């Protein structure tokens, strides 16, 4: 009976979109933000592939390998009721090689930069709402560059420039 119950719990647990990377503690996938970030990454990938195709310094085999790697790009955006520190502690326990680097962010500067690059669609009122606001973030990259986890306590919504007051985990994977 206990074994059957344990098996049922394992089978009922959500499967992470990035193999080997668990959901953050108490976290759920945000399908809307995942799609927004995936769409943006797809546009950036198309631009990168166009530059790659025009690059005469790389061999055809090297270009094919880079295209293959870019084709494996996976993005997942999670939200969690936990703090940045709690989410980092959980990932550092579950992903043995993970050691995060913390930073404090100026949300107004991030918003203005995102608007200039076209990554964020917002107006002047969003910038004025972000004035003077700070946020904390933590980031870890696997040594081979094929996996990155970003955790933020506030996220600038790329669709509107609104500041989302929740812990957000962005997982970017280029691996299998």
In short:
This protein has helices at residues 2-12, 31-54, 60-71, 84-94, 107-117, 124-130, and strands at residues 28-29, 74-80, 101-106, 134-141, 147-152, 155-156, 163-164, 167-173.
What does this structure look like?
- The structure is a single chain.
- The protein has a 6-stranded antiparallel β-sheet with strand order 1-2-8-5-4-3, with helices on both faces. A two-stranded antiparallel ribbon has the order 6-7.
- The two termini are 35 Å apart.
- Mean pLDDT is 85; it is low at 1-15.
- The chain is α+β, with helices and mostly antiparallel strands and 176 residues long.
- Helix 5 packs antiparallel against helix 6.
- Helix content is 43%, strand content 23%.
- The chain has one domain.
Name the strands of the widest sheet in spatial order. 1-2-8-5-4-3
User: Helix/strand-derived class?
Assistant: alpha+beta
Low-confidence region ranges: 1-15
Please tell me how large the radius of gyration is. 18 Å
Major sheet: size, sense and barrel closure?
Answer: 6 strands, antiparallel
The rough form would be described as: globular
Q: What's the end-to-end separation, in Å?
A: 35 Å
Key terms:
176 residues; alpha+beta; 6-stranded antiparallel beta sheet; two-stranded antiparallel sheet; 8 strands
Question: Secondary structure elements and their pairing?
Answer:
Elements: H1 2-12, E1 28-29, H2 31-54, H3 60-71, E2 74-80, H4 84-94, E3 101-106, H5 107-117, H6 124-130, E4 134-141, E5 147-152, E6 155-156, E7 163-164, E8 167-173
Antiparallel strand pairs: 1-2, 2-8, 3-4, 4-5, 5-8, 6-7
Helix pairs in contact: 5-6
